[in-house]
């Protein structure tokens, strides 16, 4: 029988919960691998779109100036700032905004801006994928709002604009909806600090501006790649350190003391934390702001000329693709009808077959399943 | 086709649907196989097209939490893919659930068996709570049983993260008979202890073989609880009369010791049961504390999962599975022996001592098998 002590040790030596998360397992990159993912995605997208251009109008791609990975990234960063605006409009909680921002950033690690872009030509109008990412985030964070109320509050939007992309967004996220956020970690640090030795009891009341400043740095970090490279708690500590370096240092020391007295404690500070902190601080300060409007405008202008013609409603390529899909669906319907006829001709009893007969089902439960 | 859609299509091809095994209001469940390995799986196909708000909350909750939770006592979500207007969850295949086993009158439960199911339930629940997830719908038919006897928490359609202090949650959760008194009184602030009450009810049901607190309406449920456990006093549950739905009951029931109803239970058993069914939610035992309760360290030790009683339907399904798999050796004795097959299998899984103790159950089981069509 295990003793109480053995039991406690068993609990404390378990790996941190964060390391079991899909965020830790599937959405962590080095700065280099992140750049690599983006440039490969961009190259592949350009190749495909160029081909599409050529297929419908030979020679038409020669003069198209496609976006590069950096330009795509600039637009995505811009979209994230627009999420903030939308959330302000709805007064959604921080959790919804942070989650939607993460969804959008993850979405564009799997999809190119040149594929999924404005349903409308005006550059300032709402973008579909952003609407969908935000709507999905309201649901996954347990703050659901009816689609009607949602689209009602956004000019020029239909429910279908949001729902049409819901599966694509969910697929792009790998159906991994759970996100660990830096603002939660920041709250934890803030609570911890109030319990530190020598901190006055009215600290939380008198120093709220410290917390608010730190929270703003966390918000700024959402415009950077920090969440793909560092853990939420590292980002939170960096943000707090920007707001109040000495207190952050004191907090870190208190954690160090805990981990030294109990080496197996999960709060053990990994070596190199200080270097990481400096790197994140640099990211937040240098990259944590909305892109220049002029730069965005310029990239967006070019985007309108180079986006995938198959996705532009009404274009030649779009119509051709639709026709192709329609043809396939028609063929499938015919095939199904033939099967049913054949089954009927063989005299299949609609109430079921004899046991040994090969199974031919009159009702196809998978009717809507076999995509081809 | 775009890269993401192609990946989705590739995922879909990894799983083969075979037979429809159930249909609910929003989902159809199929039995199937992993194409590459032949491993049995279940596919829960959720019709999304019918919802005007797109992917519905219970599907989202189930996917969100099962994607993160990997534990021996939590059902495993193997994959997710979409097909046109449907969301498909690929889950590990589980033969039966605890409700089927409780209802199978041919089975006799030993105290060690109940201890084993309780240990597995608490382990799965402790893992959920450690990950800050409330299940909010624990009941015997959401505790599924794998072919190796392992119990797994399933159906995370009502699950959610722990709320921040002061953040309201809905009290319309947990199936009535397993719903704790604070939710019946419409408390909107609660925690992991709501799940513990449910586990207490399941614990009692395993001993009684019938639902312990079976109210016939939400109003009657509270009365049923008070009748069984005594009307709470302000002392044992401070502040409960201030909860939104509180009405001064016309009758005040006295406390009757659990021992009066659970006559054969050991002192440890009743101690743990009592700690799960404490009125004051904050004084209810936690899943982690429960796992360290003396009950789990006292004799009899929990039955090994592979030796737990299993119901006829499960055994029949396993036998069919083996027949299908072309296990010629087992079939060679001819069709006449077929009906007894499940029982033969069971004996192999059971130690000789247990076989003696279980002989009654086996006999009844045998009759049932022989008579079944």
From TrEMBL, chain A:
Biased composition (Basic and acidic residues): 323-344
Record's keyword annotation contains Ion transport: no
Keywords: Cyclin
Name of one Pfam family that matches: Cyclin_C_2
Top-level taxon in the UniProt lineage: Eukaryota
Region (Disordered): 323-372
Keyword Phosphoprotein part of the UniProt annotation: no
GO BP term, example: regulation of transcription by RNA polymerase II
SUPFAM superfamilies assigned: Cyclin-like
Domain Cyclin-like: 81-171
One MF term in the entry's GO annotations: cyclin-dependent protein serine/threonine kinase regulator activity
Name of the protein in question: Cyclin-like protein
Provenance organism: Dendrothele bispora (strain CBS 962.96)
From TrEMBL, chain B:
Entry annotation: catalytic residues: 137 (proton acceptor)
GO molecular function, one term: RNA polymerase II CTD heptapeptide repeat kinase activity
Residues engaged in binding ATP: 21-29, 44-45
Keywords, comma-separated and alphabetical: ATP-binding, Kinase, Nucleotide-binding, Phosphoprotein, Serine/threonine-protein kinase, Transferase
GO cellular component assignments: cytoplasm; transcription factor TFIIK complex
One Pfam family cited in the UniProt record for this chain: Pkinase
Keyword Phosphoprotein attributed: yes
The enzyme's E.C. designation: 2.7.11.23
Domain (Protein kinase) ranges: 15-296
Taxonomy, superkingdom: Eukaryota
Chain intervals for the UniProt region annotation (Disordered): 322-354
GO BP, sorted A to Z: positive regulation of transcription elongation by RNA polymerase II
Family: Belongs to the protein kinase superfamily. CMGC Ser/Thr protein kinase family. CDC2/CDKX subfamily.
Protein name: [RNA-polymerase]-subunit kinase
Lineage: Eukaryota, Fungi, Dikarya, Basidiomycota, Agaricomycotina
